[in-house]
């Protein structure tokens, strides 16, 4: 044990070494403090997080909990949306002297249980409903920053969101101006941010003076094998001036691949649009028309707000709405 070795070499007790580690040097002579610190440096000793917590009354850990509202064939982290946010948050937390703990699950009770077990300074909660956010906040009694908070009822939260409704509006308006007579929205479920994007779609449709299509929101199945049934149905619209607006680039690229295997040309036979602006759409062929959001900046903003909360520069009651941008590609 390195603490024992340092104590033996310095000719002091282990308690004296711990006092120096914790900064409690009033009871330690200057000579012993200098001797112990020199040995700590020689051994390249790094205090454990628990020791830092004793010294600073802080674990220096921020928990990140993800309520993955849809099924993932691999894991939620394989989704480029989550992986970019997590990468940006980890980097910024590290630079600020914090560590990150991560847990993702579909089951909210599992998340609540895990959050209660952690010794963290605060939590960043991703894709939670307002009520679940408030429940989590009440349970842990720690600062919480949300990303993409859903179904907001009051203003007693801190959230980093997106202009989701505007994103749905600008893409639909663009597709109608391109001459498509039918545009369908495609996503897993018509809830949360996807519902907001669908509302923007409807606003653009209404503004254009068109009657709403029946079944204008197409719910996609959970697995790729089942989604092929969705894409088979969509293939019947080939050559009928129809575009499909997927609310995630990953689904849009997956559909393009399926249509390519059927010999359906994009965009000549069917128009395809996405949402997110991630690397999948950038490098697929033809390049995807999409609504871009800076996902990494969402993560960095959440960390900044968390540190502001911890350092008492911010109170609850802030909703940041990040901008969106239409990126025209060659898939429409």
From TrEMBL:
Sorted alphabetically, which PROSITE patterns does this protein's record hold? Answer: HTH_LACI_2
The alphabetical list of record keywords is: DNA-binding, Transcription, Transcription regulation
Is-annotated flag, keyword Transcription?
Answer: yes
Under PANTHER family, the record lists: LACI-RELATED TRANSCRIPTIONAL REPRESSOR (PTHR30146), XYLOSE OPERON REGULATORY PROTEIN (PTHR30146:SF24)
Give one GO molecular function term: transcription cis-regulatory region binding
Annotated HTH lacI-type domain residues: 1-56
Record bears the keyword DNA-binding: yes
Checking Pfam families in the record gives: LacI, Peripla_BP_3
Protein's recorded name: HTH lacI-type domain-containing protein
Domain of life of the source:
Bacteria
List the InterPro entries: HTH_LacI (IPR000843), LacI/GalR-like_sensor (IPR046335), Lambda_DNA-bd_dom_sf (IPR010982), Peripla_BP_I (IPR028082)
């Amino acid at each position: 044990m390195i603490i024992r070795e340092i104590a033996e070499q310095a000719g002091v007790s282990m308690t004296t070494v711990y006092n120096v580690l914790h900064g409690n040097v009033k009871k330690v002579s200057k000579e012993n403090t200098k001797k112990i610190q020199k040995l700590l440096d020689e051994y390249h000793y790094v205090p454990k997080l628990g020791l830092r917590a004793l010294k600073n009354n802080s674990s220096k850990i921020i928990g990140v909990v993800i309520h993955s509202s849809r099924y993932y064939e691999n894991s939620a982290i394989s989704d480029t949306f989550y992986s970019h946010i997590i990468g940006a948050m980890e980097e910024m937390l590290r630079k600020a002297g914090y560590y990150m703990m991560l847990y993702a699950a579909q089951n909210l009770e599992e998340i609540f249980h895990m959050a209660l077990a952690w010794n963290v300074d605060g939590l960043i909660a991703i894709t939670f409903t307002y009520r679940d956010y408030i429940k989590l906040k009440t349970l842990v009694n720690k600062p919480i920053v949300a990303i993409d908070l859903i179904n907001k009822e009051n203003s007693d939260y801190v959230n980093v969101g997106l202009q989701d409704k505007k994103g749905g509006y600008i893409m639909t308006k663009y597709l109608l101006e391109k001459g498509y007579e039918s545009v369908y929205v495609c996503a897993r479920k018509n809830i949360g941010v996807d519902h907001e994007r669908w509302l923007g779609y409807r606003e653009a449709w209404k503004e254009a003076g068109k009657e709403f299509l029946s079944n204008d929101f197409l719910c996609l199945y959970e697995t790729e094998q089942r989604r092929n049934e969705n894409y088979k149905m969509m293939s019947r619209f080939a050559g009928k001036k129809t575009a499909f607006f997927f609310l995630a680039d990953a689904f849009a690229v997956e559909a393009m691949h399926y249509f390519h295997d059927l010999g359906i040309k994009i965009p000549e036979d069917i128009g395809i649009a996405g949402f997110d602006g991630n690397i999948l759409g950038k490098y697929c062929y033809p390049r995807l028309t999409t609504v871009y959001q800076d996902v990494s900046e969402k993560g960095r903003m959440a960390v900044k707000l968390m540190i502001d909360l911890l350092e008492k520069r911010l109170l609850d009651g802030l909703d940041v709405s990040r901008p969106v941008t239409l990126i025209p590609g060659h898939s429409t």
